[in-house]
Design a protein that fits this description.
Structural class: alpha+beta
Number of helices: 27
Strand content: 5-15%
Distance between the termini: 47 Å
Oligomer: single chain
Helix content: 25-40%
Largest sheet: 4 strands, antiparallel
Shape: globular
Number of strands: 18
Length: 777
């Protein structure tokens, strides 16, 4: 009966939007008020002046600043907020209307959920235009259309995958711990801040005796390449500022604290991750309604942190005026040797810190890159700069080798090569060191070609827990070394917290060279049970001018609860590992009795342990830098990213045999040599060596010969000539059914008019180039 009534009510919603008819006022009010109230609530949160985030110079604002989504992501997340708020209001009205406890999943059908999603403008069934994907040799910037049967797989602005069902306090939306009176397995969950302070925090770090700091920094770069879940802004839907609130009022989910440094409110600010709004029909009805988090970047290893994930950002990062296929560079500053820096962000002045010792000096704004987190720290900024330069170096060489190529082809081929560099370095040089050779073979194994049945989308547990193992290897010191790989005389080492969002230290303090030498010339930090995470990120992640702080381990655990991740034991079972049932079991996997006892004393029940903490404290496996749980989760994800990528560098038809041979010569040492003033490097920049005995000159480092990309003009091209250019757009040359095809596309902000593809048929092109006209919003 309940199902029938609700079906009738929801079926009328779309009808009511098109026709004016007499309907029972009570039914109409019940149906429409929930939807329109949700519109009002969410819109007020965004547009009302009192709800706008405060503009301050504190790092809390910077922390939220660099995690704000692109406009495309924002639209999807706004629709998702409408969707979630509507469901919440409907649930409240259901409770008020029925005498017994009825939940929405009991009375709504998939069709009902689809109708609500359509009202909220969720892109549930919006088609993806893959019309010409079979003609293109290159990835889309968003990752869409990689898999032709499932074009959304791996694309930007898709929900993170669930390898296990979500666990929310209310079954749909509220994180574990939202209802502070609720018991989990008979006990209250401990505050993540307390866990961080008593178990995770360490005033010192253990040095890895084998690998360099590049192992840590590359992990962060690749993590940013494949996952990014943006967060909500500072104000809630009900006008409460999350920075001044200790109540669980969406989207605030503050972390309870007991230490005085957190200020009068007794909590740390926490902003929930933005939700996704692609309702998956055909799945369990509860799963279709529950809150999912969005991955706003493509999950493929495609160097998206260099190029972006949207046409708008891609266009901003390109030097379109140069007609050379290069990326844009900074027009205001160059390094001491004349090498370029990254361009600044478009909106000025930016939020990045300026040099307090030179308050009247020339401003250095936030850098812009394919990923908005580029300014988080100096090593990350240096790596971003390195690959911007590498793209331009390759593009310049390709332009000289193939003068008949269009700027678009030069750009796309250079992008394709840089993406392959990311893939090769990750699979060959990084992951075997993280997993160990044996577990790499077990979980990833040799490449057997593209598998279209593999979903490469990033998993929630990988993004939110497993890949955050690297937070335990963060160094408390940023080392800056001179040409003799000693501490730099002019630019000494820095405490980590003095480097956040300070690009002026790159521009005004010697460029990226001192930082890059510090990255591959210093030992990495390692994780041990009693030395897990440096207090530089538990106590000093934010330098405060207001009474708040940020604690990275606490954020990780709260984020896992925000995302509804099941506990540590559930994931061990998922990976086929022994379930932890007793304290002795925990002592065995941790390897430190005191730490194991602290964990059980704090969580009370082993099933309550947060997955990030459980994975972090496990004993490292032989020749590995992670324990068995994270090895499983990272290995499973990385294998999917490789096998489910149609454009993987070693897949059939992506590169020629000779090009693959040249690509195998690439190394981080060669990229460093080609794009900095550094003359001496390690043979493997990930493996530590003593200076000068273990170092080699750049002349001795193998180099990729780009002559393998020389492409003589085809007979068709000689006969038909150039297909012609179009203003505000460009073309690439491809082939279909044995014929040469020119496939045109417009730059962001312009619309294609005319046929996108023209064919070389005989001695002429089948039509004129299309036009890219009129800015469309």
């Amino acid at each position: 009966m309940y199902q029938l009534i609700f079906n009738l009510w929801l079926q009328l919603i779309l009808f009511l939007s098109c026709y004016t008819i007499y309907i029972s006022a009570s039914i109409r009010e019940f149906l429409m008020s929930s939807y329109y109230e949700s519109l009002q609530i969410v819109d007020e949160a965004i547009h009302h002046p009192k709800n706008r985030p405060r503009i301050t110079s504190s790092l809390i604002q910077l922390f939220t600043y660099h995690r704000q989504p692109e406009p495309e992501t924002h639209e999807i997340c706004l629709a998702a907020e409408h969707f979630q708020t509507t469901l919440k209001l409907l649930q409240e009205r259901v409770k008020q209307s029925y005498k017994r406890n009825v939940t929405l999943p009991e009375i709504l059908s998939h069709e009902d959920v689809r109708l609500i999603a359509e009202m909220c403008h969720c892109p549930t069934a919006s088609p993806i235009n893959c019309q010409h994907s079979h003609l293109s040799k290159y990835r889309t910037i968003s990752g869409d259309c990689n898999n032709r049967q499932n074009p959304r797989w791996g694309g930007a602005n898709r929900a993170l995958e669930r390898w296990l069902p979500a666990e929310y306090d209310d079954g749909l939306n509220e994180p574990k711990g939202w209802n502070r009176k609720r018991l989990h397995n008979g006990f209250h969950l401990p505050s993540p801040r307390k866990v961080s302070m008593e178990i995770v925090r360490s005033p010192c770090k253990h040095a890895d005796q084998l690998y360099t700091q590049l192992l840590v920094e590359w992990g962060q770069l690749i993590d940013h390449d494949v996952t990014f879940t943006p967060q909500t802004s500072g104000s809630t839907a009900f006008g409460t500022d999350c920075l001044d609130n200790c109540k669980n009022v969406h989207p605030c989910f503050p972390i309870e604290t007991e230490d005085e440094v957190c200020g009068e409110y007794g909590c740390m600010s926490f902003f929930r991750s933005l939700p996704d709004c692609h309702v998956q029909l055909g799945c369990d009805i509860r799963q279709a309604m529950e809150r999912q988090q969005i991955n706003s970047v493509s999950s493929y290893i495609d160097a998206s942190e260099v190029y972006g994930n949207t046409p708008k950002l891609q266009s901003f990062l390109r030097d379109l005026c140069g007609l050379n296929g290069k990326l844009a560079v900074n027009t205001q500053f160059r390094d001491p040797k004349g090498r370029p820096f990254l361009p600044f962000v478009a909106k000025l002045p930016s939020a990045c810190h300026q040099n307090p010792q030179d308050p009247h000096g020339e401003r250095v704004e936030c850098f812009s890159a394919g990923d908005s987190r580029v300014n988080e720290g100096m090593p990350l900024t240096a790596l971003h700069t390195l690959f911007m330069r590498e793209h331009n170096r390759i593009a310049e060489a390709l332009e000289g080798i193939n003068s008949h190529w269009s700027p678009e082809m030069i750009y796309q081929e250079a992008r394709k090569i840089v993406g392959a560099q990311h893939q090769i370095v990750t699979m060959r040089d990084y992951l075997p060191k993280i997993l160990g050779p044996e577990l790499f073979k077990q979980y990833i194994g040799p490449y057997k070609g593209y598998d279209r049945t593999v979903n490469p989308s990033a998993a929630n547990v990988f993004s939110t827990a497993a890949m955050r193992f690297g937070h335990g290897t963060i160094s408390p010191v940023i080392r800056r070394l001179n040409e003799s790989f000693q501490e730099h005389e002019l630019y000494p080492n820095l405490k980590l917290h003095t480097t956040f969002f300070r690009p002026y230290r790159i521009v005004k303090e010697g460029g990226i060279e001192p930082v890059m030498r510090g990255i591959f010339g210093s030992l990495a930090s390692a994780v041990k049970p009693k030395m897990m995470v440096t207090d530089e990120v538990t106590e000093r992640l934010v330098v405060l001018k207001i009474p708040h702080l940020m604690d990275l381990p606490a954020l990780n655990m709260q984020r896992g609860r925000d995302h509804g991740l099941p506990g540590y034991n559930a994931w061990r079972e998922f990976c086929g590992l022994k379930r932890i049932r007793t304290l002795d079991d925990l002592k065995e996997v941790v390897g430190d009795n005191m730490v194991a006892e602290k964990i059980l004393n704090m969580y009370k029940h082993l099933d309550n342990i947060d997955v990030w903490l459980g994975g972090l404290v496990e004993k490292l496996l032989p020749d590995s830098r992670v324990g068995p749980l994270f090895a499983c989760l990272i290995g499973k994800q990385m294998k999917a990213l490789r096998d489910g990528d149609r454009f993987w560098w070693n897949a059939e038809g992506v590169f020629t045999k000779q090009q693959k041979k040249e690509l195998l010569k690439i190394s981080m040492s060669r990229v460093i040599c080609d794009n900095t003033d550094i003359k001496e490097v390690l043979p493997d920049s990930f493996k530590y060596g003593e200076y000068p005995s273990d170092y080699i000159h750049c002349d001795s480092v193998a180099s990729m010969n780009l002559e393998a990309w020389r492409e003589e003009k085809s007979l068709d091209l000689q006969q038909c000539g150039s297909p012609g250019t179009t203003a505000n757009g460009d073309y690439i040359l491809s082939s279909a059914s044995g014929k040469l095809v020119a496939l045109y596309s417009c730059y962001h902000g312009f619309k294609l008019q005319g046929a996108a593809a023209i064919v070389c048929d005989g001695y002429r092109w089948s039509g004129r180039p299309p036009q890219c006209t009129g800015r469309h919003l």
